[in-house]
Every structure is written in structure tokens, then in C-alpha cells.
Records
---
Amino acid sequence: MENRADWFNVVLIFVILAAVVFLILQNTLFNTVLSVSEKPRTFGLTGHATESTTTSNVSIQKYLSIALCTNLSTGILFGDVATLPATNINATHNYDGTATGSTFCVNVSTDSNTAIDLCSKANGHLTSPALDVIGLANETYSNSTTTNAAIPALASDVSLTTSYVKSGDAIAAGGLNYYRFWLDIVAAQPSGDYNNTVYFKGVTTTLDCGA
Amino acid sequence: MIEKKVVKNLKIFSLALALILIVLPFVSAGVGISWDKETSLIPENTKTCLTYKVYNPWPEDSTVEIALSDNLMEIVSYIQSESVFVPKDTSSKNAIPIEFCFKTPNVYEKDCFLFNKLLCKQDCIENMRIYEGEVEVLEVGDQVKGSGAGGSATAVSVSAPLRVKVQCVAHTRNYSLIYILIAVAAGIFLIINLIQRRKKKDKSKVRK
């Protein structure tokens, strides 16, 4: 009886040892995980041929910076509107620059090493505290890299949207992009103060504006 | 004579004012972003951190926040959310680093024996999963600027593209768990046997 028990214990010890051996093998020899960052292999050559290696490396860095001109950073204001309906109401700084140019602008820093596309969007309709709205389609803008009395032109105005769209292409470092904004208000619009937020984003030229 | 002097002074004052206005940059606080990586290849279920740098070459201090586009937020486990103060005249060379960390999800199918989680092998026959989006740096100094008198407040940001390629790591089925379970079970049986044997010996000693 005791002999049987001894043999059983020997078998158990053998099983434990076998399991440990297989465990080690599994995680060494049988482990076929593909190395993610495998080091480059080198092969030695014997004989008269010799070979030596060196590394080649380049790092590409991009940087860009923009700022709103002061008059744009303080907001796009359309003033008091006393008569309705009103179309193409000018924002306050549409024509107050040199040669009646616009002073709404976005400035691209000279400390940028890539041309920039500008994107703009609004967070929603112009909305009053009482939740009356002026549709975003009524708030339009036009843009240009230069400005005078004629440009940015009303004729080329487009409505703001809630998704970013390009509003300036390939503006070089040190460059400016000028804007003009207009607002249409229908006759039945309830009185009140209407507000929203307009966002300006700079991206590396040719890239999408993103969400 | 006095009138002429006043006019002259006024002209000088106007000229000086005009010069100041021309020289002084008419810009608000701005934002800048600097990056050296647009694509990152990361194995699935792996944590990694990326660093972007923010700067402000403009003549006003700014406070910025970093944000990721929605399609990248799916795989981001942590992002430094506090605002970062960027002093005026911080050039791209002195840009301030902001780090955020990802943990890539398990996106590739595995062939598992137990509970869809244990004893798995992975063949990596699927196409590589790529998450594309952007890292956006927003100027949040005074939050959005503008008066409440009606009109649009304005905000400014810059962004850098980011593409995260999730790498599938092929591996064979790993039986380690089974070996461990077998060894543990055999060990328990062995201990029970040895205890029983000792008890029997003790009993037989007592009888003698």
C-alpha cells in the first residue's frame, strides 16, 4: 500500500517537473511573439571582405503660430440695429483700416516654418438669452490676404458653418489674412442681444481643417 | 506764434502716436504648436506618451489647453487637462512641452480557447488599424473674447495632425496557464499525500 503511495508521489513530482520544463520552454523556445522593436541584425563576414555600418538619421520638425488682430480678438460686433429687415449689416471693423481696409485679421507668426491654412467655424446660431435665434446662415464673411475698400469683397461672402471650413490658404510666415463679416436680420426678428462664438484655427497648409 | 507751436506739437504728437501704432503689433495673445512626429506606430494594448510643444511668440502672455479630436479620444487614456501658461515672446526654440499618454486598445481578433480571453493565439491577418486626428492647442486666456452686447465672440487655436497606427503583434497559443494549473494541482495532491502518510505513521507509532 505504501509502495503505491510512493509511486504516486513520484509521478506527481515528475508531473510538476514536466510542467515547469514546459512552462520554461513555452516562454523561451516556443515563444514566437514577433518582436515589435527588433534590433537590426548584423552578420559577420569572414575572409577578405570587410563591411562596416553607420546610421543615417533625420528629424523633421514643424511649428506654426497664429494670433488674432486686436479688433478681431475683441469680437465681431454688428452694433445696434434699429430698422428691420436689414441685410449685409457691416461688422464694426469692416472698413476702419488704412484706405478703408478691414482691421479684422489673423496674423501668422514669422516664427513659423510652414505655410498655414486658416479654418473658421461658429459654435451655433446667434442666440439671445431668451433663446431666440438668428440663423447662422445669416452671418457671412469674406477673406483675403490683402485689404482695401473693395476686398475682402461682399460679392464673395459665404455663410459661417458649425464645421471648420478653409477661410485662408497657404498664408506664409509673417503674413496676414483679413476678414469682413456681414449679418442679415429678417423683419420678424425679436429684439434682444444675440451672441455666438466664432473659432479660427491654423493648420499646416493642404491639411484638412478637422472637426 | 503760440498757435503755430501748438499745431507743431500736435503734429509731432500725432506722428509719434502713429509710429507707436505702427510699431506695436496689433495682435492679441496667440498660440503656437511645435511637433516632430505625425505618425506613431504602437502595438495594441500598449501605453505610450507623446510630447507636443507650445509656444507664444506674440507680445502678450497666453494660457493654452491641449485637446484631441474625437476620433483620437477613443484610444486616449489620459491627457493633461490643466491649462498651461505660456509667457509672451516664447519662441519655438523655447517651446514648453506638453505630454499626453495613450493606451492603445485591443483591436485585432484573437483565437482563444477559454472565455474568449485565455489561451489565445493571434495570426494578424487583418489590415492595420489607423486612427487619424489632430492635436489642437487652444488659447483659453480669457476664455472666448467678445462683448456680451450682441455679436460673435472669437477664439483661436492651432493644430497638428496625428496618425496612430495600431500594430498587431502575432503570437502562437501560450499554454503557460495550463502548465501552471497542472503543476499547482500536482503539488496540492503531493502535499495531501505527504500529510496523510505522516498521519498514518504517527498513528502506527501510537499503536505500537
---
Amino acid sequence: MPAKPAHGRVHLGARSLAWLEGFGGLVGLALLLEMAPRAGLVSPHYLPPFSAMIVALFEEMKSAVFWIALGATMRAWAIGFIISVATGTVIGILIGSSNILRMLTRSTIEFLRPIPSVALIPLAVLLFGSQIESTLILVVYASFWQVLIQVLYGVQDVDPVARETALSYGLGPWAQIRYVTWPTTLPYLMTGVRLAAAVSLILAVTSEVAIGSQGLGKEISDTQAGGAVAIMYAYVIVAGIIGVILNLLARALERWVLAWHPSMRLHIVEAGE
Amino acid sequence: MSDTGPIRPIRSLTIMLTLPAALVTTWWFISAGSQNFYFPPLQTILQTFLKVWLSPEALQNVIPSINRFFVGYLAAALLGLTVGIPIGASRHVRNLLEPMLEFFRAIPPPVLIPMLILFTGVGDEMKTLVIVFGCIWPVLLNTVAGVRALDEVLAEVVLSYRLSGFARLWYFVLPGASPQIFTGLRQSLSIGIILMVVSEMFAASNGIGFALVQYQRTFAIPEMWAGVIFLGIIGIMLSLIFRAFEAWILGWYHGLRRSQREN
């Protein structure tokens, strides 16, 4: 994001005011969700009062079902995410470092990338049923491209002068990757990591809703089918909170890894596809 | 660097087609005569593809899907823009709403399907609404970010020229925020396709997702593979349409950036 540091620094306490206002917004939303069903604006059968959702959430948290579902979602997310980031980085650096490879693979990548990973659902179901492998196929197929594309952008962004300097200093291929390619690629990779973290969660939950693999998504569709509406909303809230936490963690990782970087470059965000 | 020289079109076309041709050929020959039930020969898949997905009956599944997708996606884009611009323009409204919006965006959109079934049943409205609810957040949040980051000097120029109302929106706010808005629209595109398919996998009577699940449940494997390929083609076509649209609207911006990079 094109941050404007001047903005936040001008008024002292502008940040804490923003926090306060944001918190106020969330409280307002909770109040609205509490009052709307009570005032009869929506049927409590569809939208129970917010307090009922929270009570249901705490009840669920006492049961093993909740923790097993949460664990299953997080496990599928973590495995899929790590596979995507690792393969995307390695293949991206490999392809990106060679002009020939890049030109040869370009059309194939452009063709495969927009294929929606949900197209693979029937195939995954036939091969693996509702096991975790099904989820992983969907997660990896969707997240891999996010990382690969960013790494490809990054490798191409290497300053030609730096590359030639490295060459004339006699750096070998491995040292070139380590000292020239990697530092340039890292900011792009971090954008890919951030996108992949979000996409992996979306696809993990999609697979649980659509295929019925174990996890939060399955609990949501099961509780809806069983008419336990308050519990269903409790799980939706949990899914949202996990999404927010993963997002914050990815941003924190980005800031930490790139702390040395002169600036969080502007065009990285724009290149984010 | 070899990138700088003019590449002859024939050579670049050859390079472009080499790998895909090699992959398809490999698939064709490896799968030829395949006895594996799940991996039929590519020949069979392609014959089935022509028969099933390029027939008039296929339109009964394709048209409703595409229809719901476009209605949902366009509604989300329009809503995201109209709501996002005022939020982005005011710091206090932004502070108030941003955490809430970030939360909504973080909810994995397919979760909305069971939720919306409660409100609207399993009909067309549900499927379109799911797409709207899933696609709106990237557009909305990117519009907010884009409007917030508008060039301050330009804003003062606009002020001193006394542009206001529609003129200010049309000549300053929208163009200034458009690169960010398109980032949001692009993210929404893939979410929209996911939701189009997944929502049809739940109680539906037509649609591409519905047909796919039918084939899978009846173990009509070549039909299912053909459906996977068809969905892939839809995804690619939508992304091509989007790219053409973006190149048309954002042409000035990409040109500007290119000239900046060359300096």
C-alpha cells in the first residue's frame, strides 16, 4: 500500500483514535446484529442475536468437535501453504533465471493459471474422496500460481548492473542466486506469500464445504443442515477471525523479513495479481 | 539481453507453442489405450468434449452459470465502487468501517453458501447473492485504498480549479484510484468463478458445477474430464476478457509506468 507516513505522524494519537474508531465500528456491528433479530427486522431463525452466537461459540469451544475441526482446517491450510510457497519459489527462481525457460513456459503458465481450482473438485473426489489429499490438491493448485507469478516478476526485476557486477566478480550460479537474485525477489515473494496465505484458507474451507472433508467448512454446512443456526454463525465468526489472524501474521512476516529493505516498494502491491 | 532485440513473430509463436504442444502430445500418447478407469485416453476425452460441451444441450447448463456470474460480479463491482468511494474519501468513516470490512473480507466466501441458503433457499438468488457477497470485498477495500492514496497535489489542483461533484469524480477520483480498483476487480474475478461453480454443486438443477458433480457421481469419467477442461476454458476466456478490458481502461496508466521505468 502506498503508505503516507506523514499522515499518521502529524496529529499525535491519530493512530489510537483510528483504533478506537475501528473498535467502535465493530461494537456497532455487534449491536446491530443483536438488535435486528430482537426488533423483528430479520427472523431469529435465520439470524440469531449476536449474543446467542457468542454463547454458542463458547459452548462449542468446550467440545472436542470444535477443536478437531479447527485443527483439520489449519493442518490442511499449513501443509498446502508450505507446499505452494516452497514449490512456487524454487520453480519460479529456476524458470526466471533462464531466458529460454521463461519464454518456453510463458504460454503454458498463462494458460494454466486462470483455470479455476474448483474445476478439480470432481477429480479430487474420485481419487481421494473426502480425505485431506483432496483439499491439498485444491489449495496447492490455487496458491502455487500466486507465489510463482510473484517470484517470476521478482527475478526479472534484478538490476542488470548488479547482475553484471556479480558476473565480473566471478560469482558462481549459486552465489548469484544467493546475493543478487534472492534479495531482489524477496519483496515479491512476500507479496506472493501474503496472497497464498489468504487463498489457501479460502480453498481449504471451500473443499470442506463442497467435498465434506473434515474442518470448519464442513461444520458450517452440517450445522446449517441440522438447523443449529447459532452454532453455524459461531463457526462463520471463527473462520473470519482465522482469516484476519493469518492476514496479520503474513503482514508481520513481510515487515520482519523486509526490515532491511529501503522501502516497501510501491509497485509490488500493484503487481499483486 | 535478448529481450531488447525485435523477435520475429514466427520464432516467438514457435516458442509459445512448443511446450503446450509437447505436453498435450505427451498426454495423448501416455493415455492412449489407458485401461485406468479414472484416466481415460485423451482421445476419448476430446471426443466426449465435442459431443457433450459443444452441443445445444450444454447451453442449458452454460447460460445460467454465466448469467449468474455476470449479474453477481457486475453488481459486486458496482456496489464496491459506490460504497468504497465515500468510505475512502473520509478518514473517520474509514477508521470506523475498515476493521469490520477486513473481517468480512477474511471470511472464506464459500462459507456464505450455507448461510445464504437460510435466507433465500437454494434458488437462483442464492447463487447470485453468494457471488455478490464474495466478490464485493476485494473491490470495496481496494477502492477505499485507492481513493485514500489519491495524489495530494492533484487534489489541490482539482480544488483550485473548482472541480466538484461529478466532474471531480470522473476526472480525478476514478482515474486516480483505477489501478487499485482493477487490482480488486482482478481478485474478485477468480473468487467469482469459484463461487459460481461451488454454489451450483449444492442443490441446483442446472449450471456447469451441477453438471460436473452429476458426471462425477454417476462415474461418467470422460464427461467429467471434459467438464474440467471446459471450466478451464471458461476461466481462461474470462481472464482474457478482463485483461482486454483492463488494457482498454488502464492503457494510459501502463504506458505511463513503462515510460517511467525506462527513464
